Amino acid sequence: MYSTAPLLLHLFNGLIIALALLLGVLFFKREQDLAVHRFNGPFKLIYLGVTLSSLSFFADSLHSAGLLHLPGPMVYGRIYFWLHMGYVTGSVITFLGLAIFINRVIPLSSRQVLRLAAAREQLTASNDELARTIATRNKELEINNHTLQRVLEEQQDSRRALTESEQKFRTFFDESPAVFVSLGRDHRIKEINRYGAAALGYGPKELIGETFETIVSPEDYSTQEHYIEDGFNSAEGTSEIELRLLRNDTQSLWTKVSASLVTSPDREDTLLLVCQDISESKELAESLYYQARHDDLTGLYNRRALENFIAEKLEIMSPVGKPLALIFMDIDQLKVVNDTCGHRAGDEYIRQLVQRIGEHHGHFDFFARAGGDELAMVLSDTSPTEAVEMAELARNIAEDFSFSWQDQSFRQSLSVGVALTSRNIRSLTDIMAAADAACYTAKQQGRNRVVVQEDTPELLDANRSEMLWVSRLQTALMRDRFELYFQPICDLRHRHSGYIHYEVLIRYVDDDGTHRTPDNFLPAAERFGLTNQIDLWVLTTTLDYLDRHPAHTRALSCCSINLSAHSLASHQSRSAIKQLVMTAQFPKNKLCFEITETNAIHNLQEAVEFVNDLKILGCRFALDDFGTGFSSFGYLQNLDVDYIKIDGSFIRDIINNEVGRAMVKAMNAIGRELNIGTIAEYVESDEIIAELIHMDVAYGQGFALAKPMPVSMMEEYYRENIIAPLSP
């Protein structure tokens, strides 16, 4: 056992040694693996791996004194030694080692401190630079992060917009009311929208992989084949075309197609076809086209289509000298059916007659309804004999046809005119005029016959003249190329009294200012049904003049206006005349309408009704050309007229012709007996005037009294030739 005092000293020494060694370790970082071990007996201080050259002399001194025992040679540059000593020796060695340690450590520590300070400054500077670099990098990272975030957000927005766009396009593609078809270069269907598939009667996927011709009408296949190839070969797109698409039920769907080429670097080119359904508009257009070329009642072609067909045929056949025949057929006395049973019956007669002629005529090229009661046929490359045979066949069919309506039976006939192209008949106008003239001749010769138009220059010139007048008259009606004239009707005994009575006449004003009389244009107007339009123009213009000249209207006794047979026969014209009279602003009893005896006879029922209607309004009537018919006096019982105008054929020879003079006396006597004024026409000499006064004829009209004059001269004439002045 050891005493306490040595033990405390031993502990104290050990602590100092340990402290010294610890300081050595802190300042000499190359020493390592230091340990203090407690053994049974004295302390052993073990230095492991001491390589400091500054301690080597100390080790050598200890070894020489026998205090240091070396276990062996140096190994790898390291010295291993032992310290084995007692308490006193250990303390001395410890203090000696401490002194050496302090002596070595202080200089080393100063240098170390300087190095550490410099290192610290360098480290601080490096840290500052590093901090700045880090801050810069952090800012750059922050900016890059924001940029990246924005790019990511934009990409997300783009993806979202793209998704929405794709959804919208898909919805548009599938639900749009059109057939959308995408095709590959092999013309096979890659995709078709739901609406399009349903419109064609297929499921959404049924047509995928099929060729486009599967759904195209065979009539349009060649068209669509070229169109698709053009679509693939044209980057600018192609023009629109119309195609008929085939439905699953074999019905056709009219479409308007547009093509767009869709190219992609990594995929096959696609041709997108957009097929708009135009079936309704196509049907409407076809319906309008049909109506424009066809007659509603019979279903035959109309006059416009007839003229177009003839013009086209003439262009083809005339150069090669092949003849063309035109047959005009006019239904005789159709107004008998209309007057007896109404226009519905007349329409039905035409419809049934057309049906019968069509059933028996299988060799004509064209069959048309050229007018109200006119039919026409065209025969190509035919002979005059064949054309006449065709015409006679049609006439016989009409003659044999018995039409029944409401227990009444009718047999009508046809007046037929035939014209063929020839050296003198080469144009549409020529052949139309020739056929119409032949038909007109057939009517004049007694109806129910066939007349072939003679190929004479004189006759053709007359026909051309009439056709030319038709065009002129139509233009004149539209552009007011007519001018009103008047011819006074005089009181023979009091020629210069205040009696103002005149007949309104008309003149056509030619391009050079020449005024043409009705003798030049009335035949064409009557033949082509324009006289009713001329009548309405005269009435409208006259009423307008009277409205604009109230002083003249107040002084006026009677204004006479002629009405044609067409105006009497046409319900529309009669209604228009009545409407104009009703709306006129002057006394109706100053207006007198002249109708010829011939026209009244042909339209007796209409004439009677018309006269009665206008008489109720206050108008007066005159029966023109009186005495030319066998039953002239008899018609006075039916027609309530105010004047009879004795035909000029009786007046011209009144001086030398006893029979004529007797007829005039008789007509004048009947007039006086019935309280009807008598007007003598064609009064052309003073002798005739004297004879008429002697016969007590009240009124006269003719060149010996006054010639026709423009209406613009009317007031001047009456101002100079009457005693009573015109009212102001």
TrEMBL record:
PANTHER family: BIOFILM ARCHITECTURE MAINTENANCE PROTEIN MBAA, DIGUANYLATE CYCLASE DGCP
Species in which this protein is naturally found: Teredinibacter turnerae (strain ATCC 39867 / T7901)
Coiled-coil residue windows: 138-168
Top-level taxon of origin: Bacteria
Parts of the chain that traverse the membrane: 6-29, 41-59, 79-102
Alphabetically ordered keywords of this record: Coiled coil, Membrane, Transmembrane, Transmembrane helix
Location of the PAC domain: 239-290
Protein name as it appears in the record: PAS sensor diguanylate cyclase and phophodiesterase
InterPro entries hit by this protein: Biofilm_reg_signaling, EAL_dom, EAL_sf, GGDEF_dom, Nucleotide_cyclase, PAS, PAS-assoc_C, PAS-like_dom_sf
Domain PAS: 165-235
Domain GGDEF: 322-455
Domain EAL residue range list: 466-722
